[in-house]
Backbone:
C-alpha cells in the first residue's frame, strides 16, 4: 500500500450547509499533516469524517487498506476503520467516571479484549511517557487541562493506531499549559506515527509538519511543505489568514 | 369528651402496625421495579428519533404526572373492571394487590422516566464521541460511560421518587389491602375508635422513620458512588 490515509472526494452537508465540498488528500506513513484554516472552514468536520464520527455524504476514506465508502458501507467496516484511527479532542473528552488509568485502559479491555493486568501495565507505561506517572488514580476533574489533554493523547496512543487525528489539541488550554502538550505531541510525531493535526500553532507547524494544508470554505486552497506554505504562500486567502493569526510578523520575513 | 390519651402505648401500637410492614414492602418493591422498567422504556422513547414515539412518551409522562394517584386507583379499580366486563372479561376476582401495585407502578414510571431523561441529558456527550473513537459500539459506550454517570446524577432524584412512592403505598387501604395504614385502621375500628390518635401517631412515626432511613441511604449511596469525581471538569 502506497498511502496510509486516502481521503477521496469527501462531501459533507449539514442541511443546506455544504461544509466539505470535495476534499481529497493522500498521506504517506509517518507524515505529519497540519491543517490550517479559519473557523468554520470544515477542519473539524473533515477529521470527524475520517473516522466516521460524522458519516460523509460522498467519497471514501481508506486507512491502511480499510476502505469505507460514504454511500455504501457496513457497521463492521466503520468499526474496522475506527480501530485504525484514534482521535484527540479539543475538549479532551475523557471519561469522567473513570480514573486516568482506566480511561487509557478502557479501549484495550472493552474493545480489544486484552487481559486487564496486561492492559494496566501497558497503560502505565504510556502514561509514564506523557509524564502522568503520579496521576494514574486521579479522576479527570482533578487534573489541569494540560494533564487531561496528555491523558487524552495517551488514550489515543495505547490503541496503536495507524493514524492519530488531533483537533485543535491546545486551543482550550490556558496559555501556560500549551507548551507541555505541544511537546508531548512532538514526541509522538518523532515515533514515526502518521498524524493529522488541526492547529493554529504556526511555530509548532513549522517545526513538526511534513506538510501544511490550508482549508477554507470546505475545500483545500493550498498545500505544501511548511517552508513554502507558511513562509511564501501563493494564494491571497492563505496570505490573509496567516497574517491575521501571526499579527503580520511573517509578512516581511519571507 | 372524656377520652384519655395514653401516649406511652404508642410503641406497642407501632409494633402491632409493623406486622403489616411486609405487605407495604411488597407493594413498594414490586411497583418500584415496574416503574423503573416502564420508566426506562418511556425515557428511551422520549429521547429517541421517531417523532411519533417521542410524542407518545411525552404525552404519557404528562398524563401520569398530572393525574392524582387516587384518581388513577379508582380508574383501575372501579373503571377497568367495567370496561373489561363489557368485553366479556371478569376481573372481579383479581387480587386487590394488583390494582394498587399497577397504579403506583404506572404513576411512578412517569417520574422515573423524567428522572432518567434529565440524567441522560446531563452527561457530556463529547465522551460518547471519544468512546466511538476508541472503537466502542453504541451499546458498550452507553453501558460503560453514559449509564454510570447518569446513574450518579440520578441518585438524589431516585431517592426522592422512592420516598414519594413509599408514602403513596398508604393508598392501598382504598382498595382494601391491609398495609401499614390498613392495619392501623383495623386496630382503631377494633377498639371502636378509642385509640385513634395514638394509632395514627404511631403510623406517622413509622412512615417518618422509614423516609429518613431512605433519605440517608440515598445520600450515602451518592457519596460513595460519585467519590472523587464530584466537581465538574474545568
Ligand atoms: N453537527 C453539526 N450540525 C450542523 N452543522 C454543523 C455541525 N458540525 C459542524 N457544522 C457546521 O459546519 C461548518 C464547519 O464546521 P467545523 O468543521 O467545525 O469548522 P472548523 O473546525 O474549521 O472551525 C460550520 O458552519 C458549522 O456550523
Ligand atoms: Mg474546529
Residues:
Amino acid at each position: 500500500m502506497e498511502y496510509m490515509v486516502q481521503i477521496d472526494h469527501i462531501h459533507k452537508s449539514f442541511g443546506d450547509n455544504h461544509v466539505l465540498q470535495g476534499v481529497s488528500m493522500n498521506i504517506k506513513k509517518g507524515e505529519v499533516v497540519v491543517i490550517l484554516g479559519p473557523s468554520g472552514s470544515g477542519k473539524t468536520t473533515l477529521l470527524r469524517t475520517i473516522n466516521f464520527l460524522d458519516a460523509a455524504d460522498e467519497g471514501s476514506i481508506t486507512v491502511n487498506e480499510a476502505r469505507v465508502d460514504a454511500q455504501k458501507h457496513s457497521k463492521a467496516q466503520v468499526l474496522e476503520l475506527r480501530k485504525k484511527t484514534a482521535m484527540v479532542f479539543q475538549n479532551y473528552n475523557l471519561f469522567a467516571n473513570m480514573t486516568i488509568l482506566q480511561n487509557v485502559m478502557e479501549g484495550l479491555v472493552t474493545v480489544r479484549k486484552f487481559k486487564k493486568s496486561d492492559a494496566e501495565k501497558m497503560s502505565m507505561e504510556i502514561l509514564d511517557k506523557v509524564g502522568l506517572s503520579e496521576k494514574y488514580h486521579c479522576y479527570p476533574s482533578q487534573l489541569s487541562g494540560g494533564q487531561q489533554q496528555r491523558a487524552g493523547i495517551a488514550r489515543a496512543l495505547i490503541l496503536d493506531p495507524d493514524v492519530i487525528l488531533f483537533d485543535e489539541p491546545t486551543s482550550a488550554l490556558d496559555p501556560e499549559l500549551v507548551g507541555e502538550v505541544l511537546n508531548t505531541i512532538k514526541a509522538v510525531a518523532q515515533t514515526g506515527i502518521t498524524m493529522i493535526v488541526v492547529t493554529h500553532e504556526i511555530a509548532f507547524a513549522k517545526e513538526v509538519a511534513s506538510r501544511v494544508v490550508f482549508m477554507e470554505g470546505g475545500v483545500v486552497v493550498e498545500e505544501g511543505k511548511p517552508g513554502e506554505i507558511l513562509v511564501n504562500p501563493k494564494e491571497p486567502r492563505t496570505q490573509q489568514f496567516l497574517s491575521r493569526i501571526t499579527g503580520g510578523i511573517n509578512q516581511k520575513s519571507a | 369528651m372524656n377520652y384519655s390519651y395514653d401516649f406511652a402505648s404508642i410503641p406497642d401500637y407501632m409494633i402491632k402496625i409493623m406486622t403489616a410492614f411486609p405487605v407495604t414492602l411488597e407493594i413498594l418493591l414490586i411497583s418500584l421495579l415496574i416503574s423503573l422498567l416502564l420508566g426506562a422504556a418511556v425515557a428511551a422513547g422520549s429521547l429517541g428519533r421517531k417523532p411519533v414515539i417521542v410524542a407518545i412518551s411525552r404525552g404519557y409522562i404528562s398524563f401520569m404526572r398530572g393525574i392524582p394517584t387516587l384518581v388513577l386507583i379508582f380508574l383501575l379499580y372501579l373503571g377497568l373492571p367495567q370496561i373489561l366486563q363489557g368485553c366479556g372479561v371478569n376481573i372481579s376476582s383479581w387480587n386487590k394487590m394488583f390494582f394498587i401495585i399497577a397504579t403506583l407502578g404506572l404513576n411512578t414510571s412517569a417520574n422515573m422516566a423524567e428522572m432518567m431523561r434529565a440524567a441522560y441529558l446531563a452527561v457530556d456527550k463529547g465522551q460518547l464521541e471519544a468512546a466511538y473513537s476508541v472503537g466502542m459500539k453504541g451499546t458498550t459506550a452507553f453501558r460503560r460511560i453514559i449509564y454510570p454517570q447518569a446513574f450518579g446524577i440520578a441518585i438524589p432524584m431516585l431517592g426522592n421518587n422512592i420516598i414519594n412512592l413509599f408514602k403513596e403505598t398508604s393508598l392501598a387501604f382504598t382498595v382494601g389491602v391491609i398495609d401499614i395504614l390498613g392495619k392501623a385502621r383495623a386496630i382503631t375500628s377494633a377498639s371502636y375508635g378509642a385509640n385513634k390518635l395514638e394509632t395514627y401517631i404511631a403510623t406517622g412515626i413509622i412512615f417518618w422513620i422509614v423516609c429518613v432511613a431512605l433519605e440517608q441511604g440515598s445520600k450515602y449511596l451518592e457519596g460513595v458512588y460519585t467519590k472523587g469525581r464530584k466537581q465538574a471538569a474545568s
Observations:
- Chain B has a mean pLDDT of 91.
- Residues A 14, 17, 19, 37, 39-45 surround adenosine-5'-diphosphate (ligand 1) (CB under 6 Å).
